[in-house]
Amino acid sequence: MAGEDPALALSPLRTRLLELSDRVGLAATLALPLFLLYGRALAEVMIGLVDASFLVSCLLLRTGISLQPVWRRAALLWWGWEILCALPLPPLGLGPGGLPSLLQALALGRFLLFALALEERVLAGPFARRALQTVLAAAAAFIALASWEQYLTGRNFLGAPRAGDGALTGPFIKPRAGAPFVRLLFPAMLPPVVALLNRPAWPARLAGAALAAFGLVTVVLIGQRMPALLAGLGLLVGAWLLPQWRKPALVAVLAAALVLAATPVISPPTAAKLLARFGEQMAHFATSAYGQLYIRALRMTLAHPLFGFGFDGFRRFCPAPQFWHGLPLLGITDQAAGGAEICNLHPHNYYLQAATDGGLPGLFLFAALAAAWLARLGRGLRSAPEPLRVGLFLAALLHLWPLASTSGLAALPDDGWFYLLLGFGLAEARARPSAPP
User: Residues with Cβ < 8 Å from 362, sequence gap 6 or more?
Assistant: First the structure.
């Protein structure tokens, strides 16, 4: 496995243990997509195995964990601040969530270590990266085909119909196909599309454009608003970074626009959700469910701007009457802000959750970490845009986009997909000759 010091002499036993540890880490990584689809508890186990295998390799090789590149230092600072804000020290205004909040803050580190392990060791070799690319492409194809099966036949292979709001559930019972699919879409689609476009024969180029259109049309038919909007953002940024992607992206946009215009006939539930309900929600966003959550998170941050409420503080303290206030400057009255009934497990935005967890410093540190991740993933892409690296950069950008509704921080399956793709992207960036170690 790449990353070992050839000058370091290992005993036969330590060599065998190191090989076993590396195999366990790679096997767990390749199995993770299956359990992110079906089996969140086992997905946690796979992440834990990768973390453990990496720590074992460090012990066997007698190496420490480097804080290069910059994102690792940014991650350590954000994680440390989350832990500090969760410490149960009421006299200092810290940790109102008590021991459960502190334990959750400590456990947040497993995701950061997971991404580091993928970058540093598990995906250091080209075979491991190719294997993961194949598995992720298969996962994207599986979600797409299950969605089309449900659209064409009325039910998926599990026998589940559309969701109550008309969204396609794909290979799931509940409507959660859009989030993983839009994260997997560009890493899975860009490499084969560009490879087909680079062939001289026109049938291959036509197939590349058709594959791009198929991906975007699938997002539209799934019928979830935020994944559809994020897919549009990914198309634009991808076309800016990757010249070969511009023509198929235009074809994909035209195909998606035609399908969207036809949805009142070919898929009325999709039209109702993507067009009518979306327009109504945007026209009255402040009093919508998402708007009320965002206002509540802002009120909580203003009340505790330095340390916030500790990890998972939004869930614990959102129902408190002291936060049932609007934003008069925006014309939002206390009555429109809602009461305890509007609360949820999190504010449905990573940046607002970072603020309610750790105050304004927590928000700043998380934003800095997001910027460090994107800078690392995007290094060299303007001058030498490789389709897979562009796709992985887009997956991270869409996940970290601040104007989006999201799951909670460190919540499976969404954050499992993110850190898996992030670690993959970091490993690809590290393997480039122009990228420093």
Answer: 78, 81, 82, 85, 308, 354, 355
Which pair of structure tokens corresponds to residue 76?
A: 């350590």
pLDDT digits (tens, 9 = 90+) for 279-333: 666 666 777 888 889 999 999 999 999 999 999 999 999 999 999 888 777 777 7
Residues in the chain: 437
pLDDT at residue 270 in the model: 76
Euclidean distance between the first and the last CA atom of the chain, given in angstroms as a whole number: 16
Tokens of 9: 């002499």
CA distances 99 to 80, 83, 310, Å, are 16, 11, 10
Q: What is the 3-state secondary structure (H, E, C) of 176-224?
A: CCHHHHHHHHHHHHHHHHHHHHCCCCHHHHHHHHHHHHHHHHHHHHHCC
Dump the DSSP string for 282-324.
HHTGGGSHHHHHHHHHHHHHHHSTTTTT-TTHHHHHTT-GGG-
Asked whether the beta carbons of 59 and 21 are under 8 A apart, the reply is no
Give the span between the Cα atoms of 402 and 212, in whole angstroms: 26
Look up residue 301 and give its two tokens.
Answer: 């941050």
Residue of 278, 259, 271, 258 lying closest to 166 (CA atoms): 271
Q: What is the DSSP letter of 276?
A: I
How far apart are the C-alpha atoms of 179 and 29, rounded to whole Å? Answer: 20
Q: Name the region of 50 (left: φ>0; alpha: ψ -120 to 50; beta: rest).
A: alpha
